[in-house]
Amino acid sequence: MYITTMAPAATLVASWLTMFLVGTELFVLSPLLPMLAADYRVSPTRAGWCVTAFSLTYMAAAPLLGYLADRVGRRQVLTCSLLVFGAANLLTATAPNLLWLIGARTLAGAAAAGVSPSIYALVAAAAPQGRRAAWLAFSVSGLLVSLAIGAAVGAEVGAALGWAWVFVALAIVSLIFARFNRRIWPCEPRRADAPTTPSHLLRRAVLLRRLMPTVMWSTSLYGVYTYLGAGLTSVAFSPGQVARAILCYGCGAIVGALIGGRLADRVGTKFVAGASFAGLCSGFLLLRLALSCGAFIELALGLSSALAQLFFPAQQAGLARDFPERAGTALAWNNSALFLGIALGSLIGGRAAAVGGFDAILAISAVIALAGCLINGIVVPVAGEPELQPRNLSLSSASASPRQPLERTRS
């Protein structure tokens, strides 16, 4: 942990605004796709390649940039990534053809991969004792709010002024935020490379295991969310009703993330993550029942979303706690695992929809959530778990220091 020279409120505001910016960039492309397709005279499917390019590049670049942040400093990587993010948005706004646009979105995805993990690692390090998960949850809420507000405002600006002006505005804000974050966060000392010892190799293997719950969670959640609009339309929801349902989903997500952070600080990250998986499974089954009855659909959707979002701040706080010297790397890999799960969820949900419609998606996603609950219980350690420590400790030294629950150990 380090102490910033700024007030805690300033660091939280900086993290929230930066994540809101990244989220707006990520989510605004969906409503702007028809305009992009019309301007470049391509089908919406081909225009959607720019979304795929952004996501795949983010997933691939996040671990590398997270490692770089741990080496040269998270503030430095965050500032440089925001500058590149702004340049990528300017290139997007001036793209003369689809190929140029895809290249600009690829660069934007790489830059975003350096922003999010750096912010999460900085927040985790700056959080007061016993408040790490709550602070991370507040930062994540900026990303979630952008889904409901940032994307909607961007779509309105695009419709009124043209889609290019949306990216010009994002570029300007990115450059402002680069300077803002550079002033807010402290400069960190440069770290040397960690030696490749058996204990370090062990920790890498543990990290990969620890990412399994994130993959399961995002696969289950986004298998449903990707096809939510189509599923609601299939039960005769009007466009207005679909919009209200999505709003309920977004509000539930924000509430769930904030509550999840506070709960994780109080009762432990492993317990909250497991409870989120169990709640997500139950929520999907409840939503399936509500759809069949034609009642309380928005309530079931909001509840499912809230229960789902308990997981992410708890998982982040657990990773930052257990890998304090490599928090940037760990949280970057966690973001890559998130995007991998999104891709798997989209694929599995599409296959399920082809076989049995939206009901089949809900049933399969509920099973995946239940499996994730079991995996979370197996792979996430409790405090003093031997796999988080070098294996060459003697039995006498192990018995000399009784285990303390990891959930109650504060970094």
Explain how this protein is built.
- The chain has 411 residues and is mostly helical.
- The protein has two domains: 10-181, Growth Hormone, Chain: A; 196-411, Growth Hormone, Chain: A (Up-down Bundle).
- It is 81% helix and 0% strand.
- It has 17 helices and no strands.
- It has helices at 8-27, 29-40, 44-47, 49-72, 74-93, 98-126, 132-161, 163-184, 198-210, 212-225, 228-234, 239-267, 269-293, 297-308, 311-322, 327-379, 395-400.
- The radius of gyration is 21 Å and the shape is globular.
Task: Describe what is shown at a glance.
By secondary structure, the protein is mostly helical.
Write the layout of secondary structure elements.
Blueprint: H1 8-27, H2 29-40, H3 44-47, H4 49-72, H5 74-93, H6 98-126, H7 132-161, H8 163-184, H9 198-210, H10 212-225, H11 228-234, H12 239-267, H13 269-293, H14 297-308, H15 311-322, H16 327-379, H17 395-400
Helix pairs in contact: 1-6, 1-7, 1-8, 2-7, 4-5, 4-6, 4-16, 5-6, 5-8, 6-7, 6-15, 6-16, 7-8, 7-12, 7-15, 9-16, 10-16, 12-13, 12-14, 12-15, 13-14, 13-15, 13-16, 15-16
